[in-house]
Design brief:
Blueprint (H helix, E strand, L loop, with lengths): L25 E2 L3 E3 L5 E3 L7 E2 L10 E4 L2 E4 L7 E6 L13 E6 L25
Antiparallel strand pairs: 1-6, 2-3, 3-4, 5-6, 7-8
The structure holds iron/sulfur cluster (SF4).
GO molecular function: 4 iron, 4 sulfur cluster binding; metal ion binding
Cofactor: [4Fe-4S] cluster
Organism: Acidipropionibacterium jensenii
Amino acid sequence: MTIPSTSRSPAAGADRPDAPAPLGGDPAHWWHTTEDGRVECELCPRHCRLREGQRGFCFVRVRHDDRLVLDTYGRSSGFCLDPVEKKPLAHFHPGTSVLSFGTAGCNLACKFCQNWEISPSAILTPC
Ligand code: SF4
């Protein structure tokens, strides 16, 4: 599968892990500012280039005050006990339970996604 990406300009900035967290989010790493003033995320091959207030394709990294912020840090989109047989583990403690959890956000767009209700859109719904 080919993941389309936007054009990429040379690295012109640096990530700023010491930046304070606005919006209650967590400062994101792996981004830089481009020559045209956008913030480009370097975390995945999509290389989203964002203007103020825009979210990346994954919907969990957002530009705020000229920084990239992860506003799902510490938020779970699902938390439950599952039978271990649902997991891709062969003959691992059959008949027992396993704790499952995940966070909002996905950088894919599979048409057959079984988690479409809790993937990118979950960030819009308060936990
Ligand atoms: S999809 Fe998300 S992680 Fe990937 S480049 Fe865009 S903002 Fe970054």
